[in-house]
Design a protein that fits this description.
heterodimer, A: mainly beta, 11 strands, B: mainly beta, 6-stranded mixed β-sheet
């Protein structure tokens, strides 16, 4: 099946620990994204990548890191420097040609206790 | 600073009512505006708008863009309980930068 796969779906971590969320797509999309969503709110852009080995900070990049070593993979690490990491994280991807919509994975719930 | 602002943030209506959701934006290098519906997890695509004044329609939902006044509206007529969701507006940037930013979302609850 073609699509965007995020894992894990649910994750609990202790404060002070780094955690990595996986995002894999087999749609041959150029660009990949990470968004954070807090309950009842919209999506805030963390990082995005247009091409392998390159990525840009979004509006709330502090405390997060990413890599794009392969076109199909864009993992997000939530570091201990992120002050309030408990949230719903959505990965997305799309082609970069004009007029292409963005497609989302099913999301990962991260709870830090 | 680029921003996308949606209003109202939340709305409660009864089945059969008509609702209008608003999205305004202040961005450099605008390319298009997108609307999404989010019920549980992944948002699903509704409309993409690139030109002013051309209405996009799908069933009871319709949307239009005003590039002069920098806003879009999403209309839902004859609402049903299944329309209850978060409605998200996003702006895409030109130049193949890849950047795509969302507003805060409007949470719509439709009561029977």
């Amino acid at each position: 099946d073609g699509g965007i796969t995020q894992s894990p779906k649910y994750l609990f971590r202790k404060e002070g620990q780094n955690v990595t969320l996986s995002c894999e797509q087999n749609l041959n999309h150029d660009a990949m994204y990470w968004y954070r969503q807090d309950p009842g709110q919209g999506l805030r852009l963390i990082y995005y990548s247009q091409i392998v080995n390159d990525f840009q900070k979004g509006d709330i990049a502090e405390g997060y890191s990413v890599s794009r070593e392969k076109k199909e993979s864009f993992p997000l690490t939530v570091t201990s420097a992120q002050k309030n990491p408990t949230a719903f994280y959505l990965c997305a991807s799309r082609f970069l040609d004009s007029g292409n919509t963005i497609y989302f994975g099913e999301g990962s719930w991260l709870t830090v206790v | 600073e680029d921003k996308v602002v949606q209003s109202p943030l939340s709305l409660v209506v009864h089945e059969g009512d008509t609702v209008t959701l608003n999205c305004s934006y202040e961005v450099t290098n605008f390319r298009s505006l997108l609307w999404y519906k989010q019920e549980k997890k992944a948002p699903t695509f509704l409309f993409m708008l690139t030109s002013s004044g051309i209405e996009k329609k799908s069933g009871r939902l319709s949307s239009i863009l005003d590039k002069k006044e920098l806003f879009s509206i999403l209309n839902i007529t004859a609402t049903q309980t299944g329309d209850s969701a978060i409605y998200l507006c996003a702006v895409d940037f030109s130049g193949n930068t890849g950047k795509l930013i969302f507003g805060q979302g409007t949470t719509l609850q439709v009561k029977p």
